[in-house]
């Protein structure tokens, strides 16, 4: 029995499902986020030297994502459906104009991204779980940020039909240098659907900023395929970032029990789930559809973890002044750490785990305009942390 309980707990932790106490999205705790006058700070050690962790804000309810505005303040989402502006020692009230979200399980308000042309268009993009009766699907909306409100909200993308009852929505939003919007998604725990090109579950999609489909997407004009698809065979992608030098899109993906992955998704390629995987079912049995760890025509991950960290948001640090310059950072929900990867080109050369003793579920990590890392912890009393990397200027 103890084993069963442990496995269940592992399963929930591994897929980023509701933490202990569950159901917080449906019955959200009252938020009272606070930026104290003297934030708690601590110096910790890493292989590359000491780094400082400062708890800028506490009292955020399951914060999911942050995005910097050109003025240096941040937009921060809370999963129950709130968007706030944080900066200059203050936390705003929830902004008006945010879409209604489906709040069951892993659903809710997810990623936030700022338009590459924000100075001209003031557009903010949100990904979220959108309801349709008892079901839900990943959706993306955009709106203009005017003062402390979103105006003119327009849904630019939605999965249809809606199939999820709370699992595997993804989702991250990344604009590439050509201005295309990539939306990472999950397969809503309907494994085989990740291979169906006429379904949007388990797919990375590539859109124009208004949600229309670019003419050069790989499945445009192909019968029984959704033209928005860029790559497929994905399980649940909760992390994505552009490499600061190659400018390629990197994504992270939850495996089941084991088999979390890093990928650099290429147009039209099949990333294998659930036909190939380095993981097994939470029950301890094999994935029913799996043929093994590799097969012809299916892409191998760039890197994988045999024990699932529960990968969430990710960021490259591109700050020339730091001993962590060029490293890739990934939030770990299940193992409750911040993962630091040293890269050799596109190869993972070395891994270090940070913040392990704090046991925080790390939901997101981003680089600020000041070259520091900003981290969100996924808790009822969630935190915004600033991390000053070793050797960075104070
Ligand atoms: Ca894969």
TrEMBL record:
Question: Taxonomy-wise, where does this protein's organism fall, top ranks first?
Answer: Bacteria, Pseudomonadati, Pseudomonadota, Gammaproteobacteria, Lysobacterales
Stated name of the protein: Glucose/sorbosone dehydrogenase
| Highest taxon above the source species | Bacteria
Q: Where is each Glucose/Sorbosone dehydrogenase domain found?
A: 61-386
Q: Which organism is it from?
A: Dokdonella koreensis DS-123
Q: Which InterPro entries match?
A: 6-blade_b-propeller_TolB-like, Glc/Sorbosone_DH, Quinoprot_gluc/sorb_DH_b-prop
